[in-house]
């Protein structure tokens, strides 16, 4: 492809990864975001091996390893703290060829920002696009306009540009649970420092995983009706009530978290949608396929999008539109499967049908660790970098 100019709307994980990949391919790139200050939504993220492989491919492997937590084991525990399943993750690393890394979102975003060799223009809210057969123009609320050959809409779960691409509004769907998340100093009375521990029971979860800086990324999940509200001064009392009678490490975590640095989110997803491209505009990341965070694949899929789109642009001389069609066909199939699998898993974990959740608890206790690793490997190896 000739020297394209690409306009990216959104400077999250997907937008920045795409920007880095496209710049490395020799294309001109401009990135815009509506916010005054880039602050990631959520405290941490588990990057499974397929996402890490994308970063390796972009030359960021060593930097990723420096900010990622060492996670050698995954333990499922009952709410009282009895072990349901203890999974050694090292055979998984051997099978898929890369260690997974839990990481603080601010560390990941900072690494990506530093790796992107250009300026991210903040306080630019894209409100419309116009295109003809030769170009596409982004129009911003502040009056600014920019024209390029391709526009990537990486503007998140509540994407404005998704409506333009689809020709109709698609609202995010509520996943029927609330998630609290944050970071705490790592401590053996919470969990082993090389383990991801997940306490399950009563259709809820309490979890900790290691990230760099001797910290744990933690989250709590509770199924609640849509529209419940709270504020940081109430988080500790709220969690104490929801997790009454749970094991001591869970109680320790509730007492130790900083409520004013804890996020409380109603979990939503988007998709599957029937298209990702309209002319010269391509959806990427959560704008196209936000997933419930129950597979740890949301960020990974956005990273895969950026790499795959770049690869199709680089490897055809037919036309840019042809490259976008191939991107759409490839990523629609991959991401639709992940969105559906993650939603099904969210429903199973959080008691949409209580008898199914009870069966899952029983399955956890009986399942061979090799089978758990196999299921994770299957999702990872379905990606573009095997």
Structure in a nutshell:
This protein is α/β, with parallel strands linked by helices and 386 residues long. It has helices spanning 13-24, 49-57, 61-67, 90-96, 105-115, 161-166, 232-242, 248-256, 286-289, 298-314, 320-349, 354-366, 369-381, and strands spanning 5-9, 28-32, 44-47, 73-78, 83-88, 101-104, 120-121, 126-131, 136-140, 145-148, 150-153, 173-185, 195-201, 204-211, 215-222, 263-269, 277-278, 281-283. α2 (49-57) runs parallel beside α10 and α4 runs parallel beside α13 (369-381).
> Taking all residues together, what is the mean pLDDT?
95
CATH topology heading:
FAD/NAD(P)-binding domain
Strand order in the sheet with the most strands: 5-4-13-14-15-12-16
Residues in β-strands, percent: 25-35%
Query: How big is the Rg?
Result: 21 Å
Summarize the biggest pleated sheet: 7 strands, mixed
Number of helices: 13
Number of domains: 1
Structural class: alpha/beta
* Shape category: globular
Give the C-level CATH assignment. Alpha Beta
How many runs of DSSP E, i.e. beta strands?
18
Helix content: 25-40%
Distance between the ends: 25 Å
What is the annotated CATH architecture? 3-Layer(bba) Sandwich
* Model regions low in confidence, pLDDT < 50 over at least 5 residues: none
CATH superfamily: FAD/NAD(P)-binding domain
Cofactor: FAD
Pathway: Purine metabolism; urate degradation
Family: Belongs to the FAD-dependent urate hydroxylase family.
Keywords: FAD, Flavoprotein, Monooxygenase, NAD, Oxidoreductase, Purine metabolism
């Amino acid at each position: 492809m000739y020297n394209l100019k690409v306009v990216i709307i959104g400077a999250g994980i997907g937008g920045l990864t795409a920007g880095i990949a496209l710049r490395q391919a020799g294309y001109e790139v401009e990135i815009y975001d509506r916010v005054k200050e880039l602050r990631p939504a959520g405290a941490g993220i588990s990057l499974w091996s397929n996402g890490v492989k994308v970063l390796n491919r972009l030359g960021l492997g060593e930097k990723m390893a420096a900010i990622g937590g060492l996670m050698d084991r995954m333990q499922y525990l009952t709410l009282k703290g009895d072990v349901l399943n203890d999974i050694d993750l090292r055979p998984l690393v051997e099978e898929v060829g890369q260690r997974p890394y839990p990481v603080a979102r601010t560390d990941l975003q900072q690494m990506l920002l530093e790796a992107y060799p250009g300026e991210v223009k903040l306080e630019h809210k894209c409100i419309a696009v116009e295109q003809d057969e030769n170009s596409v123009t982004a129009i911003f609320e502040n009056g600014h306009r920019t024209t390029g050959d391709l526009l990537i809409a990486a503007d998140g779960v509540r994407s404005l540009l998704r409506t333009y691409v689809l020709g109709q509004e698609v609202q995010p769907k509520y996943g029927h649970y609330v998630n609290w998340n944050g970071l705490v100093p790592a401590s053996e009375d919470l969990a082993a420092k090389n383990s991801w521990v997940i306490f399950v029971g009563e259709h809820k979860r309490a979890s900790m995983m290691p990230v760099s800086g001797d910290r744990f990324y933690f989250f709590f999940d509770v199924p609640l009706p849509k529209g419940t509200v709270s504020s940081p001064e109430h988080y500790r009392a709220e969690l104490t009530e929801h997790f009454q009678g749970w094991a001591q490490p869970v109680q320790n975590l509730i007492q130790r978290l900083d409520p004013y640095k804890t996020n409380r989110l109603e979990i939503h997803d988007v998709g599957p949608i029937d298209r990702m491209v309209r002319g010269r505009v391509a959806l990427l990341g959560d704008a196209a396929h936000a997933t419930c965070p129950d597979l740890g694949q949301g960020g990974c899929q956005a990273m895969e999008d950026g790499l795959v789109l770049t690869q199709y642009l680089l490897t055809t001389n037919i036309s840019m539109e042809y490259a976008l069609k191939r991107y759409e066909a490839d990523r629609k199939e991959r991401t639709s499967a992940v969105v559906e699998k993650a939603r099904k898993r969210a429903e199973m974990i959080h008691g949409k049908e209580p008898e199914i959740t009870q069966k899952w608890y029983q399955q956890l206790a009986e399942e061979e660790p090799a089978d758990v690793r196999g299921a994770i490997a299957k999702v990872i190896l379905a990606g573009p970098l095997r």
